[in-house]
């Protein structure tokens, strides 16, 4: 079983930056892919991108490409979401998830709140 714990969310001004962390514990050897998602109030959950656990190859959606990056610290089983040039519409609960394959994400963290003030 994999356990995911996010941190790093806080209140930040427009144009600011934040780095969110997602620490994986437990059966991390079963992880193939880690994804980042967000959900704003009243909106559906939005997929932001993923990182392949073994190769650190990343994918980001067009909505955040150029502002957000995903990286991984192998030694600490931690995946990061670096967010730059933040906008009020980036306000959401951000969470990470893991998948043992290219299929469905099976394990989810509880999320961390990011609020961008105008």
Report on this structure.
By secondary structure, the protein is an all-beta fold. Helices cover 0% and strands 53% of the residues. It is globular and about 40 Å long. The mean pLDDT is 96.
Shape, per Cα inertia axes:
globular
Mean pLDDT: 96
Structural class: mainly beta
Reported for the largest beta sheet, the result is: 7 strands, mixed
Catalogue the unreliable spans: none
N-to-C CA distance:
40 Å
Query: Oligomeric status of the shown chains?
Result: single chain
* Helix and strand run: EEEEEEEEEEE
Please give the radius of gyration in angstroms.
13 Å
- Strand content is over 45%
Describe the structure using short key phrases.
118 residues; mainly beta
Topology:
Elements: E1 2-7, E2 11-13, E3 18-26, E4 33-39, E5 46-52, E6 58-60, E7 68-73, E8 78-83, E9 92-99, E10 107-108, E11 112-117
Q: What would a concise description of this structure say?
A:
With 118 residues, this protein is mainly β.
């Amino acid at each position: 079983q994999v356990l995911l714990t996010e941190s790093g969310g806080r209140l930040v001004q427009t144009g600011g930056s934040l780095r969110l962390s997602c620490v994986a514990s437990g059966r991390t050897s079963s992880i193939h892919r880690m994804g980042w998602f967000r959900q704003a109030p009243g909106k559906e959950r939005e997929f932001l991108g993923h990182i392949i656990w073994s190769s650190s190859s990343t994918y980001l959606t067009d909505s955040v490409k150029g502002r957000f990056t995903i990286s991984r610290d192998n030694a600490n089983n931690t995946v990061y979401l670096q967010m730059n040039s933040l906008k009020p519409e980036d306000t959401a609960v951000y969470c990470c998830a893991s998948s043992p394959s290219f299929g469905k994400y099976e394990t989810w963290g509880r999320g961390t709140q990011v609020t961008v003030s105008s």
